[in-house]
């Protein structure tokens, strides 16, 4: 058996407009200076409780808590308003996931900074709810790059680290995977520049190349 673990935002789905818009709503509600697009995308992948203090380092904890709550509320409302158009999948991703899921020797997993509620809604929206055998979310683990999510996925599936690969778009994904002793594939279409992904085992530019990379490393 082999295990392929995917990040979500910036790897499977393009949710940057919702992330930036929701972060903007949260900061405006607190009458704070809104972070730049570059700053917001730079924290994608981290749990909100870790990411928010990086964007607003000088505000008290109580304000951080309100920012987190406001972001979650704004993001959920955007998801409800957008319906099927919310967080579209990147080109080729659906075919890749469905092809891998159909292989008896391949298990699929998710390791994401999203909440379980948000992830479940996204997977249902795209008809991929049954594709993943292990799902690790921010609700249950320390933030990336702590290896907790990967270690839990390995324990749940029983797949060996040398038969497992992590696919992600941020340095947090790559650092998390390396801390857990598994191989890594970085995708260039996500939210961190490729200059931050040079420590990945492989870097790919499209879904076809990603499939080849997965087969190469596992």
Automatic annotation (TrEMBL):
<dbReference type="GO" id="GO:0005829">
    <property type="term" value="C:cytosol"/>
</dbReference>
<dbReference type="InterPro" id="IPR023214">
    <property type="entry name" value="HAD_sf"/>
</dbReference>
<dbReference type="InterPro" id="IPR006439">
    <property type="entry name" value="HAD-SF_hydro_IA"/>
</dbReference>
<protein>
    <submittedName>
        <fullName>HAD family hydrolase</fullName>
    </submittedName>
</protein>
<dbReference type="GO" id="GO:0006281">
    <property type="term" value="P:DNA repair"/>
</dbReference>
<dbReference type="InterPro" id="IPR041492">
    <property type="entry name" value="HAD_2"/>
</dbReference>
<dbReference type="GO" id="GO:0008967">
    <property type="term" value="F:phosphoglycolate phosphatase activity"/>
</dbReference>
<dbReference type="InterPro" id="IPR023198">
    <property type="entry name" value="PGP-like_dom2"/>
</dbReference>
<dbReference type="Pfam" id="PF13419">
    <property type="entry name" value="HAD_2"/>
</dbReference>
<dbReference type="InterPro" id="IPR050155">
    <property type="entry name" value="HAD-like_hydrolase_sf"/>
</dbReference>
<dbReference type="InterPro" id="IPR036412">
    <property type="entry name" value="HAD-like_sf"/>
</dbReference>
<keyword id="KW-0378">Hydrolase</keyword>
